[in-house]
Amino acid sequence: MIPVVTPAEMKAIDVAAPEPVEILIDRAGAAVARAALEMLGGTYGRRVVVIAGAGNNGADGRAAARRLARRGVGVTVLDARDPGPRVPRCDLIIDAAYGTGFHGTWQPPDAGDVPVLAVDIPSGVDGATGAVDGPVLTAVRTVTFAALKPGLLFPPGREFTGDVTVVDIGLDVSSARSHVVEASDVAAWVPARAVDSHKWRAAVWIIAGSPGMSGAAHLSSRAAQRAGAGMVRLSSPGLGADPAAPTEVVGRPLPPARWSGDVLGDSDRFHAIVVGPGLGRADETATSVRELVAKASLPVLVDGDGLFALAWSSDGAGPVLRSRPAPAVLTPHDGEYRLLTGRRPPVDRIEATRQLAADLRCVLLLKGPITVVAEPDGTTLLSATGDARLATAGTGDVLSGIIGALLAQQVAPVRAAAAGAWLHGETARHGVRRGLVAGDLPDLLPQVFASLPPSM
Q1: Cα 253 to Cα 452: distance, rounded to the nearest angstrom
Q2: Percent of the chain, pLDDT > 70?
Q3: How many other CB atoms are found less than 10 A from the CB of residue 287?
Q4: DSSP strand E in 67-115: where?
Q5: What is the pLDDT of residues 408-438, one digit of tens each?
Q6: CB of 161 closer than 8 Å to CB of 152
Q7: Which CATH homologous superfamily contains domain 2-174?
Q8: How far apart are alpha carbons 150 and 138 in whole angstroms?
Q9: Closest CA to 4 of 115, 136, 100, 112
Q10: Distance between CA 268 and CA 265 in Å, rounded?
Q11: Is the Cβ–Cβ distance between 6 and 149 less than 8 Å?
């Protein structure tokens, strides 16, 4: 996993460093100079302009300037505090104007067609959130130190970063509470199927769909199968035979109302429950969802109309979730987050997810360009694999099925949610660039699993 720290956390890490700040600046400058030389492709006749501010970010840029000058590069250092400094003709601009702690706006010069190398983060991008309130020099490459910063990951900030390289300069980031999930993590978390396994070793019961809304149930069920569930039982309350359901799914009819007791009384052989996709919002349905979530003694994933049912309880979702005997995973998008809290997620999506996870005492997955998964204790995992191809109807139902299958395989809930988000995003990357629909995703999952590195 790649550590992610906020500007405030990074400041504390800097203060705790055993080496003097001058040594850290020299190391950072060396890393920036190396990146600059790679971008220049040589030194003879090359010219670099460094825009340097007054703080440590500017000091890093000046340290890089000295190293480049010693290598024979023509270097000009401009003061970032000069309004709109004019950039002389050059082959590369190094943006060392302001670091992760900058707030407000600045007036960068016109870079024209000259490539930009950003130091730590492009100046003008909020390091904590990725917010941008003014002009920013778009970097071709960003060299950041010790750990990623949220502003490098979340839009719109990430649109200005180019390729991001994390450089070790000797800082201890073991205190980081947020990490970006990598392929090696998913490979380590998802268990191999045992030689003596059978279908009931990883059984998931999906309560989803309703008359006229069966598509969500089918997508979730198919995804659970492809993600490793040995047995998928599908129940769509009020819907009898469902010939369009995936062939291997085992149907179990439920009445249109008061069905929670049927599920609770027959779930002994299952390892996880998925409830909510396409379920409908009738009062009787919402009541059964709340009763099921409150009393089920196995992990439950709640999505879609299941989130509506929790949110529209007279006391909100908290009382239902806080008294649960087993873990719960909630997977809201921004609109469902608003149902649960009364407001859309604030710009700091990491903190927004942490706060709601702590309040509801559940694992919370907030969907978005960067998916944020948080535990009640504040531990946070981020998935950066998804792209705009997932912005179509039904892809969230696929995600529910994937996570449900991982829970059934006894993956820890926070890891199941984060690995599910990572796998979900990777299926899009394995799909066609235009015309991808949710129904394509489950059948791409085997390719994604096959691409994982061998687990150690």
Answers
A1: 37
A2: 99
A3: 16
A4: 74-79, 92-96
A5: 999 999 999 999 999 999 999 998 999 999 9
A6: yes
A7: YjeF N-terminal domain (3.40.50.10260)
A8: 17
A9: 100
A10: 8
A11: yes
Residue of 123, 79, 80, 83 whose CA lies nearest to 102 = 123
Phi, psi of 292 (to 5 degrees): -65, -50
Which ranges of 206-348 would DSSP assign to H, the alpha helix? 215-226, 260-264, 283-295, 305-311, 318-322, 334-341
Under DSSP, is residue 119 helix (H, G, I), strand (E, B) or coil?
strand
Q: Name the burial class of residue 365, with classes exposed (0-12), middle (13-18) and buried (19+) by CB atoms within 10 angstroms of its CB.
A: buried
Q: How far apart are alpha carbons 147 and 19 in whole angstroms?
A: 18
Residues 6 or more apart whose CB falls under 8 angstroms from that of 182 comprise 1, 2
Mean pLDDT (whole number) for 329-338: 96
Q: Tokens 């490098």 belong to which residue?
A: 152
Count how many residues are written for the chain: 456
Report whether the peptide linkage leading into residue 156 is cis, meaning its omega lies within 30 degrees of zero: yes
Contact partners, residue 165, CB within 8 Å, separation at least 6 = 35, 141, 142, 143, 144
Instruction: List, for residues 220-267, the tens digit of each pLDDT value.
Output: 999 999 999 999 999 999 887 788 888 899 989 999 999 999 999 999
**52: which residues sit within 8 A by CB, 6+ positions away?**
58, 59, 61, 62, 65, 77, 78, 79, 80, 96, 97
Mean pLDDT of 191-204: 85
Residue ranges of domains in the chain: 2-174, 183-451
Say which DSSP state 40 is in.
Answer: H
Per-residue confidence (pLDDT) for residue 83, from 0 to 100: 67
272-275 vs 116-119, strand pairing mode: unpaired
Helical spans, DSSP H, in 167-295: 183-189, 215-226, 260-264, 283-295
Cα dihedral sign, 398-197-451-440: negative
Distance CA 169, CA 149 (A): 15
Backbone angles phi, psi at 320, to 5 degrees: -65, -45
Rounded to a whole number, what is the distance in angstroms from the first to the last CA of the chain?
15
Tokens 């055993």 correspond to: 18
59 to 23, 81, 101, 185: CA distances (angstroms): 11, 14, 15, 36
Annotate 393-413 with b (16+ C-beta within 10 A) or e (fewer).
ebbbbbbbbbbbbbbbbebbb
* Helix (H/G/I), strand (E/B), else coil: 392: coil
Q: How far apart are CA 190 and CA 188, in angstroms?
A: 6
CA distances in angstroms from 448 to 192, 227, 419, 440, listed in the order given = 15, 10, 12, 13
Q: For the structural domain made of 183-451, what CATH number should be given?
A: 3.40.1190.20
CA angle 291-312-358, nearest 5°? 80
Q: What share of the chain is helix, strand, coil (3-state, %, to 5)?
A: 40, 15, 45
